[in-house]
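This part of the workshop introduces the protein records we will be handling. An example says more than a description, so a record of this kind follows:
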Amino acid sequence: MKISYKQLLILPLITIFALALSPQANAQTNGGDFGLGVILGEPTGISAKLYTGNGRALDFGAAWSFGNNASMHLHADYLIHRFDLISVDSGQLPLYYGIGARVRMADNAQAGVRIPIGLSYYFPNDPLEIFFEIVPILDLAPKTSFSGNGGFGIRYYFGKAR
């Protein structure tokens, strides 16, 4: 069975729509609720995060893979941040985890479920976040397979100061 790109986009669009209905509240950053930056690793690209309140956030990525099968990668995740687990003298160091969807567009396109796990560091006086994550992936279409992503990155937060 051949899967079209339109069919592969249905899963992340449903995820984004459902998560967008979550309540809005203040972010845990020194900047605004929206951060934009880059992620380096597999894949490498643009990363965005939107806080929705109570340590919850939506994470989006548009990236490309330079491996054996060059491809475009899109993902959307719902993340839960635990700011209370690790205390630091300055800034904040939450552990985060969540669930999301990804689409990999290539000759052998795939769609699946992501389970991101990572650490972020929020600088005390600057609207910056650095992060590291590992992401197990269960691809569901066109066939079931297991893979993973990982990387580190930085985001700048826009908006009113907290």
The CA atoms of residues 45 and 63 lie 4 Å apart. The two ends are 51 Å apart (CA to CA). The helical segments are 5-20. Residues 5-158 form a domain with the Porin fold (CATH 2.40.160.20).
